[in-house]
Amino acid sequence: xxxxxxxxxxxxxxxxxxxxxxxxxxxxxxxxxxIIVGDNASTDDSVSFLQENFPTVKIIQNDQNYGFAGGYxxxxxxxxxDYFILLNSDVEVTPNWIKPVIDLMESDLQIAAAxxxxxxxxxxxQFEYAGAAGGYLDIYAFPFCRGRLFNVYxxxxxxxNEQKEVFWASGAAFFIKSKCWRETGGLDADLFAHMEEIDxxxxxxxxxxxIMYCPNAEVYHVGxxxxxxxxxxxxxxxxxxxxxxxxxxxxxxxxxFRIFIRMFIDFIAWxxxxxxxxxxxxMAVSKGHWHFLKSLSKTNKKRKAVxxxxxxxxxxxxxxxxxxxxxxxxxHFSELR
Length: 337
What we know:
Spore Coat Polysaccharide Biosynthesis Protein SpsA, Chain A; 10-stranded mixed beta sheet; 337 residues
């Protein structure tokens, strides 16, 4: 029998997405599977809707909205399976989207987490923002994807059809061995949402594990289902959380240098938002930096004894992706050198 798998969808007021995408998830071709919806204290009628229309789906209810990170931590405390799949509610799956990834992860004890190929649900031949063909970090820990640099999304022409070790797997469709989840303590609830999967993957890599991309399985992500891309709160979370995960996971001397440079790059973004008439986004960057500085002591306590050299990790681009994209005008992952 295949290893046991729990697909866990964290829901917050997502009734429409559950109605649209749950039938496909329930039709997944895998013989040792449970489907669970963890509800993050929704204020719509998501729970009663599930009970009436999808009685085979297990529902685990949180007593309040703990965000993406804390919400999944609370729910997965009550789930037993060999593998967890953290799946966004706005993801459309294909019938055979599970087994190829599980087979890949079963082939190597050092593989802790993985993702399928993630494309855009509204244009299924185009890679999607949150994951695409696997996640990378640049020299200053700026995240990007194979198949997506900033606002340029590549069409899928088979250019990323080889399985590959990457730096991070997307939280939109995140496969992880349950023993690795428990070994690391899951997601960092203080991050609330955004980049929490990058932090988890970084901690796993510091422990010697691999993060993989599996091209033989595909899903389609709507994107922005809970927080729209153009949202100051999302901007705040991204700028704050990126600095926090750098402090948590980089070797100490390395962290000081890279965080200083990264905050300077963020300052350029601050000016860009100001000069383009987006004062709320300017304030979001300032707030993100301020809250990062306020959390320095707390974050320092989370640092682990194992801090591997950053550049030694697979999935690190040892140059600036910001410089490559905006100055050198490189628009595709394959052009990065």
